[in-house]
Amino acid sequence: MVEYINILGYFAGFMSTTSSLPQIIKAIRTRKTQDLSYITISMIITGAILWTVYGVFLNDLPLIIWDVIPACLYTSLFIIKYLCDNNYLKHKTIRPLRSIRIISSKDPHHHRYIHLHHLHHPYIHNLHKKHKHIKHT
Fold first, then answer.
1. Domain hosting residue 52, numbered range
2. Using CB atoms within 10 A of its CB, is residue 28 exposed (0-12), middle (13-18) or buried (19+)?
3. Cα–Cα distance between 54 and 64 in angstroms, integer?
4. Is 65 left (phi over 0), alpha (psi -120 to 50) or beta?
5. Per-residue model confidence as pLDDT tens digits over 64-89
6. Cα–Cα distance between 114 and 109 in angstroms, integer?
7. Residue 99 pairs with which residues in a beta bridge?
């Protein structure tokens, strides 16, 4: 029975720890953090640090692990918010890769772009067979 309780504790810690990741990823991608509160983030960081100290005094490894990680994650969110709010980071969305540049080895100034939505096309699959001198960069 004790083993199941420990598994439950580790799972709860994992869920609590990773719950901040979607917000951090969204803040990095969109660079829009004006709706995030410095006070809330600071309170979460402080709470996680205090729980970590408490875990150290109890010598409770799961408590230490599952509170050090969110303290670091929320500290990074705090820094991202500060950088975005003070215009150190431009407010542009980071877009996913949409094309691949292919440079011919015979003529390094000749570039070709292949859009990723065409990757299912047979041309891409036969690219290396037809043009062995072309390499991906």
1. 2-85
2. middle
3. 8
4. alpha
5. 888 899 999 999 999 999 998 888 77
6. 16
7. 115
Q: Does residue 124 surpass a pLDDT of 80? A: no
* Domain match, 59 and 113 both: no
pTM of the model: 0.60
Contacts for 90 with CB less than 8 Å, ≥ 6 apart: 31
Beta strand ranges found along the chain (DSSP E): 99-104, 111-115, 134-136
Per-position b or e across 47-67, b if 16+ CB within 10 A of its CB: ebbebbeebeeeeeeebbebb
Tokens 């083993």 sit on residue: 3
Query: In terms of domains, do 20 and 79 share one?
Result: yes
Q: Do the strands 134-136 and 111-115 form a parallel or antiparallel pair, or are they unpaired?
A: unpaired
| Within a domain: 78 | yes
pLDDT surpasses 50 at 90 = yes
